[in-house]
């Protein structure tokens, strides 16, 4: 029996890692880039297994504003600077805070297990496991908030250190 398709919005370095893991699980992956008509694709794929938004920080809100309503119940987000205020109005969203680096032309480099929360967290964990990228499942929303704040602090600290050291 064929597995349900997944939609990946943003096929940069991170989106491509997740797409590869999902493909290894047997899910057909439908990539969305800036030129893709999401409403048209949502009519063709009204009930995907997952809709993963893997876009850069500046593109997150515009993408969420254009996201077809039918996909909201399947939504998962990954973002370096993500906080609940960015997504809590969308309902039961899955979130993953990635703690691996992916640079062009290089394999992923794991720093620590990536925490994931929400109804699609197990699917994200299984997909990344096919690539030997560990995920820590988080059960409580308040615990995920803590994980997101830690990641935001890490990003802020590395950016400030980068300014200091060049």
Fold and architecture overview:
The chain is an alpha/beta fold and 166 residues long. The protein has helices at 13-24, 38-44, 60-66, 121-129, 141-165; strands at 6-9, 29-32, 50-53, 75-78, 94-96, 100-101, 109-110, 114-117, 135-138. The strands form two sheets. The protein has a seven-stranded mixed sheet, with helices on both faces. The mean pLDDT is 91.
Secondary-structure map:
Elements: E1 6-9, H1 13-24, E2 29-32, H2 38-44, E3 50-53, H3 60-66, E4 75-78, E5 94-96, E6 100-101, E7 109-110, E8 114-117, H4 121-129, E9 135-138, H5 141-165
Parallel strand pairs: 1-2, 1-3, 3-4, 4-5, 8-9
Antiparallel strand pairs: 5-8, 6-7
Features:
seven-stranded mixed β-sheet; two-stranded antiparallel sheet; alpha/beta; 36% helix; 166 residues; single chain
Strand order of the largest sheet: 2-1-3-4-5-8-9
Helix fraction, binned, reads 25-40%
Task: Tell me, rounded to a whole number, the average pLDDT.
Answer: 91
User: What structural class results from the helix and strand content?
Assistant: alpha/beta
Number of strands: 9
The biggest beta sheet reads:
7 strands, mixed
Number of helices: 5
Task: Report the β-strand fraction as a percent range.
Answer: 15-25%
Head-to-tail CA distance between termini: 53 Å
Shape: globular
Alpha-carbon Rg, integer: 15 Å
- The low-confidence parts are none
Element order: H for helix, E for strand: EHEHEHEEEEEHEH
């Amino acid at each position: 029996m064929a597995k349900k398709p997944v939609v990946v919005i943003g096929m940069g370095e991170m989106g491509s890692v997740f797409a590869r893991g999902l493909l290894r699980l047997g899910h057909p992956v439908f990539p969305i880039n800036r030129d893709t008509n999401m409403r048209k694709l949502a009519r063709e794929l009204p009930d995907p297994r997952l809709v993963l938004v893997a876009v850069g920080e500046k593109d997150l809100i515009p993408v969420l504003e254009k996201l077809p309503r039918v996909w909201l119940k399947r939504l998962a987000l990954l973002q370096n600077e993500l906080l609940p205020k960015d997504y809590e109005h969308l309902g039961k969203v899955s979130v993953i805070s990635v703690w691996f680096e992916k640079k062009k032309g290089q394999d992923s480099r794991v720093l620590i297990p990536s925490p994931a929360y929400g109804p699609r967290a197990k699917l994200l964990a299984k997909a990344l496991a096919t690539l030997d990228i560990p995920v820590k499942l988080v059960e409580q929303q308040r615990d995920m908030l803590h994980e997101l704040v830690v990641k935001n602090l890490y990003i802020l600290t590395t950016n400030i250190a980068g300014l200091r050291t060049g």
